[in-house]
Amino acid sequence: MSSPPRPFARVPAWVGGITLTVVVLITAWIVVPIVTGSPAGSSGQELDVAGYPSSVSATGDDGRTRTLAAVFAEGDSADFSALGAGDRLIVSGSGFDPSKGIYVAVCKVPDSVGGKPGPCLGGVPSTEEDGDSTAGAIGYAASNWVNDDWAWRLFGARSFDDRSEGTFTAYIEIPASADENVDCTEVRCGLYTRNDHTALEDRVQDLYVPVAFAE
Length: 215
What we know:
4-stranded antiparallel beta sheet; 2 helices
């Protein structure tokens, strides 16, 4: 007579079931807001910005007044009309919606109001898991990703500095003026914020500081 199965033999099935349930719930939690979200309108910033100011502000269709500013990390006087590869900028923002992630990068200014900024130098930030979710961690890169959702922070996003104020800090190392997608010596470019891949068609957080590159 064969002996009855031991209770321990059923443990892997329970573990597998629980793991699958957790994965499904996390996936739904991430995907549902992406597919159900609706654009909130325009950021309110004019497409043409005069000169090369170090900060800009605009009130979007969602009622938020956003400010975007940048300074050179070395403390040099700001001259955003003559950037060079390797320049480092500390970028700050306030009034942003922390429920929506943003990319920060040098991108082509769109040709028309309502157009999406881009292509962007250096592409979009990596979404490979690196576990660095510390708000104060400094890592200069061609583009930064800010998203306050803990799941996305596991994949390299920085958190907002203060959710109630919608503030963030990004650390940009200016790449070469051109790559295979865009040449910022031939087209107008700006240091942009725009919604990340969770709300790509939402233009409400498109804000930019005009930049140009030295000859």
